[in-house]
Design a protein that fits this description.
The structure holds 2 protein chains of 2 kinds. By secondary structure, chain A is an alpha/beta fold. Chain A folds into 3 domains: 18-229, Rossmann fold (3-Layer(aba) Sandwich); 240-334, Ubiquitin-like (UB roll), CATH 3.10.20; 339-443, NADH-ubiquinone oxidoreductase 51kDa subunit, iron-sulphur binding domain (de novo design (two linked rop proteins)), CATH 1.20.1440.230. Helices cover 42% and strands 15% of the residues of chain A. Chain A has 19 helices and 14 strands. Chain A starts with 17 loop residues before the first helix and ends in a 21-residue tail after the last helix. Chain B is of the alpha+beta class. Chain B has 2 domains: 14-75, Orthogonal Bundle (Arc Repressor Mutant, subunit A); 87-170, 3-Layer(aba) Sandwich (Glutaredoxin). Chain B has helices at residues 14-24, 36-47, 52-62, 66-75, 95-99, 102-113, 157-170, and strands spanning 87-92, 126-131, 143-146, 150-152. In chain B, strands 2-1-3-4 form a 4-stranded mixed β-sheet, with helices on one face. In chain B, 40% of the residues are buried. Classes of the chains: A alpha/beta, B alpha+beta. The complex binds flavin mononucleotide (FMN), iron/sulfur cluster and FE2/S2 (inorganic) cluster (FES). FE2/S2 (inorganic) cluster is lined by residues 92, 94, 96-97, 133-137, 140, 142 of chain B. Chain A: Pfam families: Complex1_51K, NADH_4Fe-4S. Chain A: NDH-1 shuttles electrons from NADH, via FMN and iron-sulfur (Fe-S) centers, to quinones in the respiratory chain. Chain A: GO terms for molecular function: 4 iron, 4 sulfur cluster binding; FMN binding; metal ion binding; NAD binding; NADH dehydrogenase (ubiquinone) activity; oxidoreductase activity; quinone binding. Chain A: Residues 340-385 form the NADH-ubiquinone oxidoreductase 51kDa subunit iron-sulphur binding domain.
């Protein structure tokens, strides 16, 4: 069994209550941080831990914290990003549902480290049940003196509020989230200025994912160096992986970074293999935005070496033969799944969620959706595949926020690895309506290349 | 959609206004516009949709222009700008849920209820629509029912039938 830092007590009855959470050692990190550490020392521990943001971009959390501007007499804010809307990702909802105090404890320690006196947890509006769970937990924590005025007699004051969103994927993007929290449409802001300089209400602000903030608790309890010993290379610690699609046991798993992908998919400790005795065709390893990979490149690099669940290993080979860790939303496709249909579905999603500020994103996502719809329904032309390639290239890198890239990559990678399937749909407009292309050679194992001696 | 003349004026109850005041107290001086999204949720929980007169009242309460409320209410997908069924069923239609049968559930609902997406059944009880990923992909297909946002996972056609029967009996 691998080490669990976030979900260790998930199955303890009543762990959602303050009482049981305390019995299991909860709020020790708050005591340690507020009574024995300075804010600078906490930032230092988080830096040492090597923790990388769990929201998708993987930016080192300690470094992000150290960029926070601290002008005299200006409020600073910590905003927790609990918008979780990336298709394939459902770990934050899980954590908040079952161990809400882990997030609240993390928020208290992190707010203290950043000098925030008021912090917000921005939860997507659809998670009303989780909002109620968090509000109840906050009330419990406040009644017990972990929040409010003069916490533990240290003179530190903190108010923590839950803010609901209104249903918009784009509000997961941090500047759109801040706009939304200010009561406006979720249009991403042009950066710079970055939130660390001018964020919520124009004040210095840190936005962090739920899992990043919860990870601060074990980092403070055990020390940054201890945390950094777990994992592999620059992928330190544990990571929550949301596993969905055609798996025997989909769900949320806490893994030590560096676990072989093959073990994650097939071992009984994790997903238990592909459902219904089928074969694996493809995966999207990090949430809908990251490149899709055929089964063989999921399990191994192009040179035959095994691929691991880590930031570096998942991106090994660049976009040509690799993908990204993203938010850890691991989606598995069995041999009966249609890549064209899924690509169309994702394109439809991004078109629906585009905020409409930039033409390449607004027009491009709609155009891709239309072309993919045509191909999927047997009305495609051969030149449509190149057209799609052309459109996605014109979106990538030409937009205000990364949603444009997020919409382009799934299309690009599907064409890169599954072009023959798109072409089959076009050549077989009738057959493709009732039959699947199947697994082709996507699962053919990649043999390890013979080692050539370097002279 | 925003035809004011067709909609009857609303008067917010003192209980609702007390909830408004509580929300407003969460933000710093002068930043009360932040309360807008939570307030619209409170309005929707009360009336099951957000009418133009209700939006105008919210604008008045927050001391902002009505257009500032309209632009927010139309941007976000959760706010219903016309009346829905008493039970508004929302089924996730995004990729991962489709891998495990979400599209079948949607067409089953359409047949079962005898209405198209977005329409209300004759008895006023049900409406349904497809929505995007609800952060429960590992437990798909999933649906939620506003205004409580109760959640139903691992749906099958049989479990959907049962759910609809239960809701009918409840009302
Ligand atoms: C379109 C888009 C959607 C995003 N959605 C989320 C989200 O739902 N949750 C999240 O934590 N980060 C999301 N992010 C990333 C955030 O912008 C931000 O990088 C993150 O919250 C920072 O937290 P971290 O450093 O702890 O990862 C999204 C980014 C983009 C461009
Ligand atoms: S890239 Fe798309 S979502 Fe992002 S700001 Fe531009 S239009 Fe909006
Ligand atoms: S795809 Fe349906 S909940 Fe995520």
């Amino acid at each position: 069994m691998s080490r669990k830092l976030l979900l260790e007590h998930i199955n303890v009855p009543g762990i959602n209550t303050l009482e049981v959470y305390r019995q299991k050692g909860g709020y020790r990190a708050v005591e340690k941080a507020l009574k024995t550490l300075t804010p600078e020392e906490i930032v230092e521990e988080v830096k040492k831990s090597g923790l990388r943001g769990r929201g998708g971009a993987g930016f080192p959390t300690g470094m992000k914290w150290s960029f926070l501007a601290k002008p005299e007499g200006v409020a600073r804010y910590l905003v927790c990003n609990a918008d979780e809307s990336e298709p394939g990702t459902f770990k934050d909802r899980y954590l908040m549902t079952y161990i809400p105090h882990a997030l609240i404890e993390g928020m208290i320690v992190s707010s203290f480290a950043l000098g925030a006196k008021v912090s917000y947890i921005y939860v997507r509006g659809e998670m009303m049940p989780q909002i109620r769970i968090l509000e109840k937990a906050i009330a419990e924590a406040k009644a017990a003196g972990w929040l409010g005025k003069n916490i533990l007699g240290t003179g530190y004051d903190l108010e923590l509020y839950v803010q609901p969103g209104g249903g918009a994927y784009i509000c997961g993007e941090e500047t759109a989230l801040l706009e939304s929290l200010e009561g406006k449409r979720g249009n991403p802001r042009i950066k710079p200025p970055f939130p660390a300089i001018a964020g919520l209400y124009g004040c210095p602000t840190v936005v962090n994912n739920v899992e990043s903030i919860a990870a601060v608790v074990p980092i403070i309890n055990d020390g940054g160096d201890e945390y950094a010993k777990i994992g592999i290379g620059r992928s330190t610690g544990t990571k929550l992986i949301s596993a969905s699609g055609n798996l025997v046991k989909p769900g949320v798993y806490e893994i030590e970074l560096g676990l072989p992908v093959e073990e994650f998919i097939y071992s009984d400790e994790y997903c238990g293999g592909i459902a219904n005795g089928k074969r694996l065709k493809a995966t999207v390893a990090g949430g809908s935005s990251v490149p899709i990979l055929p089964a063989n490149l999921t399990l191994k690099y192009a040179n035959g070496e095994p691929r691991l669940m880590s930031y570096e290993s998942l991106s090994e080979g660049g976009f040509a033969t690799g993908t990204m860790m993203g938010s850890g939303g691991f989606i598995a496709f069995d041999e009966d799944q249609c890549i064209v249909r899924n690509t169309w579905n994702f394109a439809r999603f991004y078109h629906h969620e585009s905020c409409g500020q930039c033409s390449p994103c607004r027009e491009g996502t709609g155009w891709m959706e239309k072309v993919l719809h045509k191909i999927e329904h047997g009305h495609g032309k051969m030149e449509d595949v190149d057209l799609l390639w052309d459109i996605q290239r014109k979106i990538e890198g030409n937009t205000i926020c990364p949603l444009g890239d997020a919409a382009a990559w799934p299309v690009a990678s599907a064409i890169r690895h599954f072009r023959d399937e798109f072409e089959w749909h076009i050549k077989e407009p009738v057959k493709s309506q009732s039959q699947n292309y199947g697994i082709a050679n996507y699962a053919t194992p990649i043999e390890k290349a013979p080692v050539t001696e370097e002279k | 959609m925003l035809k004011v003349e067709e909609q009857t004026p609303v008067v917010f109850s003192s209980e609702l206004l007390a909830k408004f005041d509580d929300v407003k107290s969460r933000y710093p001086e002068g930043k009360h516009k932040s309360a807008l999204l939570p307030l619209l949720h409170l309005v929707q929980a009360e009336y099951l949709w957000v009418s133009t007169p209700a939006m105008d009242k919210v604008a008045e309460y927050l001391n902002i222009q009505p257009i500032e409320v309209y632009e927010v209410a139309t941007f976000y997908t959760m706010y219903f700008l016309k009346p829905q069924g008493k039970y508004a069923l929302e089924v996730c239609r995004t990729g991962p849920c489709c891998l495990v049968g979400a599209e079948k559930i949607l067409s089953h609902l359409e047949n079962k209820l005898g209405v198209k997406e977005g329409e209300v059944t004759a008895d006023g009880l049900f409406s349904f629509r497809g929505v995007e990923c609800l952060a429960a992909c590992g437990f798909g297909p999933v649906l939620q029912i506003s205004p409580e946002y109760t959640f139903y996972e691992n749906l099958t056609e049989a479990s959907v039938d049962k759910l609809i029967e239960d809701l009918k009996n409840k009302s």
